[in-house]
Each structure stands twice: as C-alpha cells, then as structure tokens.
UniProtKB/TrEMBL annotation:
CDD domains: PBP2_GluB. Keywords: Signal, Transport. InterPro entries: Bact_solute-bind_prot3 (IPR051455), SBP_3_CS (IPR018313), Solute-binding_3/MltF_N (IPR001638). Coiled coil: none annotated. It comes from the Bacteria. Belongs to the bacterial solute-binding protein 3 family. This is Transporter substrate-binding domain-containing protein. The keyword Transport applies. Pfam families: SBP_bac_3. Gene3D superfamilies: Periplasmic binding protein-like II (3.40.190.10).
Amino acid sequence: MRVAAGGFAAWTALAGCATSEPPGPAAADPTTAVYAEPPLPDGATTETAPVPAPATTDCGDPTASLRPDGITEGPTLDAIRARGRLIVGLDWGSNLFSFRDPVTGILNGFDVDIAKEIAFDLFGDRERVEYRILNSADRLAALENNLTDIVAKTMTITCDRRQRVTFSTGYYATGQRVLVVHGSGIDGIADLADRSVCVAAGTTSQQRVRTEQPAARLLTVPTWADCLVAMQQGQVDAISTDDSILAGLAAQDPYLEIVGARFSNELYGIGIHKGNDDLVRFVNRTLERIRADGTWNRIYNRWLSVLGPSPGPPPARYED
C-alpha cells in the first residue's frame, strides 16, 4: 500500500506539473486572418501622376524600307555567314509570337518562325539561329550595340525609332485595344480614367495610353507576361497593347477578355542596325518570298488563327 500510495502521489505530482504549463497558441481564425499583398513583378514602376506623352518626330512614311533588288551578298551578310548563325533578339514571354514551350523548352511563335525563314535564306537551314532574350525597353540598344543582327519582337515601326535603327518593311499589321477581367464594367480606353493599367516599358503602347487616356494610372513592367501576373493578382484593372499580344495573354486565362475598338494602327518591322543596308535588303527579300509563296499565311494559321482568318501579309512599302 505504501508503494502504491507513493506511486499515486508521484503520478499526481507529475500531472499537476503538466497541467501548470501555459497553453499552446490558439488556432488561427480564418475569418480574421491577415494576408500580405503579393509583390509587384520585378522592375515594376507606378506613375503617381499623369505623364505627358513625348513629342514625336515626323519622317514621312516610317514604314517605307529599302528595296530587295535581289541582293544576296554584302559585308554584314558575309560576317553573319562566316559566324555560321543569325543572332536574333526576341523574348520568351509574348505568347503566340515568341514563347518557350513548357514541355520542350524550345522557343516557338510567329516571330520565331519569321526569323527562321531569314536564316533559311541565309544558310539553307532554319535552325541556324541564336536567340538573345530582350525586354521591350532593350530592343533598340541591343541593335545599336551590335548585340544582335536583327530584332524580331513585335516592334512597331515609328519615326522616333528610325532615328536610332533601321527597319524592314512591315510584316504584321495590328492595333491597340484593352484586356480586362470578364464583367469588369470596362468597355474600352475611355473607361480607363482613374484606373490602373499595365504596360510594358519602352513600348508604343505605353505612349499611346498616355495620349488617349492621360488620366489612367500606369504600372510599367519589363514584359507583357508580367502584366498578366499583375492582372491575375488583382493589382491592375486592365492591360493595354496590340490586340495580337492581348490575344496571347487571354489564351492563358479564360477569365480575361479583349474589349473596345482599336485606337491605333501598328505595323511590326524587323529591327536592324543602322547602316547595315545589305542586311535590310536581304530581310526584305525574305519577306517578299514568304508573302508570295504562302509561307506567311502558313505561319499565321499555325500561331495566330485565334485572331480569326488570315488577313494576309501587309503590302511592302519601299523608299527607293
């Protein structure tokens, strides 16, 4: 009995010690929990006040380029052939135009295929291409510093840009619209006053929103893929750029829709270092070929049929 009593006293003492410890933290109440806001994409900047659109340069018809004239040789072309590959600047976040296949890791898209056709005419091999990944704001500097031979990255031909680089003839015609969440109540550019709008830095789309709707609040990011993330995180009310790019974003999210009419006319060109006229004429020769032999339509149908039936390639415009 003494042993049993002693054991019971020891158990009672231990139980008393156990019950005297402070209780653990209470379970979180999901109705009162506080969640941190997701961070903005790296490199994002917000305009806190309207910024006036920059003055533009008048150069006549900026889309007029150098006539091909059957050129196949020249100092720039010789250097590219000696290197053995064409260096092309583009990005991997413009769905439908240039994007990385999530399964294979290979770059695909409309702009990628256009670049491959130029490589084919240079080497007889569409795979003799080296890609340099660029943000929109880096395109002109990459050409000026000879980091790429060409830039094929949804680049609108403008007089301002032609002061720094040369362009091929236009190879794709498009126009700017607005992308929003279904049921947002936004029906176009007029509804973006006092709304947050995402644009990529260094684009004509950024300038166009400032001109057409100066009361919009702009979130500027490095790539259009960053705009999609910001939209999905509820950090912007809209994205505005060419409807061809918006279609690629909308294809990745069924809750998004393109609204409103086009409020600009854009013509994409292949960017080339100023003074490399032999390369300009050669690229225009390739563009002439793919217009004539049906290649342009085949590339369109492969990547851009979501925009509707092929409108056909834009006609070439030459300055000489």
